[in-house]
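Figure 3 (text version): structure tokens given as input.
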């Protein structure tokens, strides 16, 4: 049955691409905690990740992943001893095509620390890829606006940055792992 999103409890892959259509990274297994046509929340822990060059590694800690069909970013909350670290990828909105949840990674990242301070990463890589892969000006504008939107979400503790968001979804994830 074709639906616009995966079912709660389903185990899916996450595929990240680059603007030129080449695969960037694959997360082998994430469990869907919420699946709607506009928002998918997933979780994984110690999942195999395969890089474009074939190298693999395994994630170290439980993570709650937030994907949205209308925002040009996705947010991963990593649960560590010292608190929740967030890794935010500036990306295309997700698509779900029965094979995997897919998005285009646009290089820019925001790392958020447990005290909610943050840093913008990979601006050089973004500029290099913007030229190499000819990102259209409209995409450049959308991404820069979404950096601002993400920063305001961090300041306002909105969405995945809300105080109970990660804890609530982590509890749900743990109920699936029993």
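Below: residues designed for each position.
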């Amino acid at each position: 049955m074709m639906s616009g999103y995966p079912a709660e409890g389903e185990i899916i892959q996450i595929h990240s691409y680059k603007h030129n259509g080449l695969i960037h990274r694959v997360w082998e297994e994430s469990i869907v905690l919420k699946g709607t046509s506009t928002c998918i929340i997933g979780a994984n822990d110690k999942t195999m990740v395969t890089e474009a060059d074939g190298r693999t590694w395994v994630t170290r800690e439980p993570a709650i992943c937030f994907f949205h069909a209308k925002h040009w970013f996705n947010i991963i909350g990593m649960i560590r001893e010292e608190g929740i670290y967030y890794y935010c990828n500036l990306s295309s909105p997700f698509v779900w095509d029965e094979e995997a949840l897919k998005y285009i990674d646009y290089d820019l990242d925001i790392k958020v620390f447990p005290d909610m301070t943050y840093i913008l990463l990979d601006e050089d890589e973004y500029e290099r890829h913007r030229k190499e892969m000819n990102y259209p000006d409209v995409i450049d504008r959308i991404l820069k606006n979404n950096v601002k939107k993400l920063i305001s979400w961090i300041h306002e503790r909105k969405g995945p940055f809300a105080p109970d968001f990660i804890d609530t979804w982590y509890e749900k994830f743990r109920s699936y792992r029993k």
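The longest helix spans residues 137-156.
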